[in-house]
Amino acid sequence: SMIEIIINTSFSFVNTVLERFGLKKIYENKITDCEQQLASYEHPKTFESFFATVRDDMNSYDDPKLKKVLKRIDEILIYTVPSGENFRAILTVQTFKNMVNEVSINDKLLKQCYALSWFEEITQAASLVYHDMMKKSDTRNGKRCLHLR
């Protein structure tokens, strides 16, 4: 998976730097522990399913003027966001879990973390749409760019 590639690449880089400066033996155990923890991380299904909550919340507005705009935004979200790697979201969720004591994690905090994570992914998707428009790109990740649809 992509996350395994990123983790392996990151640790290869760290190992190379430590070897170059003769520090690998000092940090070897710490790196191994951290590598095992990161490699065992799984992207939670509840995070993925929270995307539906984000969309439902957005589509719950009754304002007739907003309905048309929100419908278009929803189409954009469906086209751009789920196909991403969600790397920012993965880091946010994992950082949250590492920073907060497991005992104090509750549904409300986790939902807020998921909402923030999806906000990051939506913002990233919007940035990529803007980037594609400015660069006059035709495709992104093998799909026709959104601004050309």
List keywords for this structure.
two-stranded antiparallel sheet, 3% strand, mainly alpha
Structure overview:
By secondary structure, this protein is mostly helical. It folds into two domains: 2-39; 45-148, no CATH class. The chain is 72% helix and 3% strand. It has six helices and two strands, in the order ααααααββ. It has a two-stranded antiparallel sheet with strand order 1-2.
List the helices and strands and how they pair.
Layout: H1 2-20, H2 24-39, H3 45-58, H4 64-80, H5 87-99, H6 107-135, E1 139-140, E2 143-144
Antiparallel strand pairs: 1-2
Helix pairs in contact: 1-2, 3-6, 5-6
| Poorly predicted residue ranges | 37-43
Looking at how many chains there are and whether they match, the oligomeric state comes to single chain
Series of H and E elements: HHHHHHEE
- Can you list the strand order of the major beta sheet? 1-2
Largest sheet: 2 strands, antiparallel
Strand content: under 5%
User: What form results from the Cα inertia axes?
Assistant: flat
Overall tally of structural domains: 2
The total strand number stands at 2
In short, what is this structure?
This protein is mainly α.
